[in-house]
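user: can you give me the structure for this one chain? tokens are fine.
assistant: on it. calling the predictor now.
[tool input]
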Amino acid sequence: MIYVFGDSHLWHEFEARQLLKLLQQFSSDPKTDRIILMGDMLDVCVSGQKGWLTQFQAFFNILKHTKVPLTYILGNRDFGAPSLIKQLDNPLIECHMSHTLKIGSKEIYLTHGDIILTSTRKYKWFRAFLRNSFMDSLIHCFPYSIVRLIARYLSLHSYKAHRMNPKLRAYALNAFSKFVQKKWTEGFDGVILGHTHTPAYDESPSDQFYLNCGFWPNDKLYYAIQPEPWHIEACYVSST
């Protein structure tokens, strides 16, 4: 079984515990073929800072000890994740901005999705600010209290932007739809994205598919993919 998670934004502490429990279970289950994380799992992570949130420590501890292959697709909020993942020294983990994954006879295209939204100048600058090696290094220099304020602001800004700005949300969903259609035309059997905080499970007449896990703190959704025989199940976690 292959499990797909995305946009967990681990600052949301109760929902983070629910996610970590599932990751712990699946990462040690011999029946798990692979775990796919679709980015923005962290918001901001700072190595070596006192008071580092418990769920961040638990998250990287799960990755360090995973017994199954894990594909980590970097989101625009995963500050420092590549260097921290490298430090785990676990050969079962692969880290990519975008990636083509072969599952049986199917080719699946994976990317977080922020690279799709390119026509808004404001967002181009915002993305460039977040997704570059200089900021990755600089964020480690801030006091932990400042980093947490930044992370919380970015997380809440993202949530409000995608949920409460109809024009931005419509633009993003339209851009994603066109991108998925393009990838289907290129011959990909499936496309998995994140970023919009909007759940999606769409299929084409030719059995191609598109998945998006939405926003974990709100939707609590992951996908379970059975390779043989091929089957996709949307799995919702109770809030209680």
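assistant: here you go. The CA atoms of residues 111 and 149 lie 27 Å apart. Residues 144-164 form the longest helix (21 residues).
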